[in-house]
Amino acid sequence: MPSHLSSNSTIVRSPARNTLNFWTMQAKVTLLDGSVFTCTVEKRARGFQLFEKVCEHLNLLERDYFGLSFRDADNNKVRLPCNFFFNVKFYPPNPAQLSEDITRYLLCLQLRQDIVSGCLPCSFVTHTILGSYTVQSELGDYDPGNLCGSNYISELSFAPNQTKEMEEKIMELHYNCRGMSPAEAEMNFLENVKKLSMYGVDLHHARVKLRHWLLVFSSDSEGVAIMLGVCSSGLLVYRDRLRINRFSWPKILKISYKRNNFYIKIRPGEFDQFQSTIGFKLFNHRAAKRLWKVCVEHHSFFRLLSPEETPKKFLSLGSKFRYSGRTQIQSRRASAQISRPAPPFTRCVSKRNLLSRSLDGGRTQVTCQNTLSGAK
Fold this sequence. Notes:
14 strands; 22% strand; FERM_central; FERM_2
């Protein structure tokens, strides 16, 4: 039977049966400056493809430190379609090693959100120092002729519980920043913020699983609420906002999860004969798996020369997830090859009220106005 579709024929489709609408969807990504980037992606596209579109939109080459996330009802970061947040995934221990100003600026935006939300606690003195660099970066040199009112930073956001006393001290320090370029102010901001104890720590709620690890916890600590923090150096344990233990990546032999339990196997010490396995109880299976994946990614990125290959066995037990991106060493090598002129971009002003999260998982408000150059 001859085909009805000859080379001279045309196909007319009704709007209701438009193939583009059927196979594609609109994805919205909230950027670090508060603007929203919207693009069309295939419904079966991988998250990496959307991430690439966002990075192209931002003109960002040093992409390995960033990622996309979605926050569920419990404010936990999960991977779901449609509405995403572009944010920092791996906080570089030494931001000065980043090659481009735009990368450092995006890192500054993330850290300002972390600070204002209370996720990154600071002392009064640190708030004022960091605030002065933020003002210098966003408003430039102190100039009474161009400033409206004596408190020209009252509409800017620097801390969860911002006071007039803090603003006055920030203005005093801002005056001393005269002559500093925005890029220099951001570098000084990063050099100070990287020294904070909670810098780059991804927190997860948990409970101590068993009582008999007396070398790690007290004998009455079973079931006590704690927080596990994942960072570039390893796994941290917090109780009542105080760090009570630290397990560096070289000390951890294995990480695993089963149901809602998360386990780490510790390398024996100088006087220990046996390896120790320490268990923690998470809220549910999904939370335990999420913590495990975050640990896998951080260990791979900061410790390995290159990512591990995914097992190819047909019948294998356990998760096949492996970190597949570039490691920090590979990223630094790629950054060293960047030779383009510095891309232009517009710095935003740290207005108040952009949705973020607190150290305890609550939500606070912080806003940023204006956009990066080219933002839609």
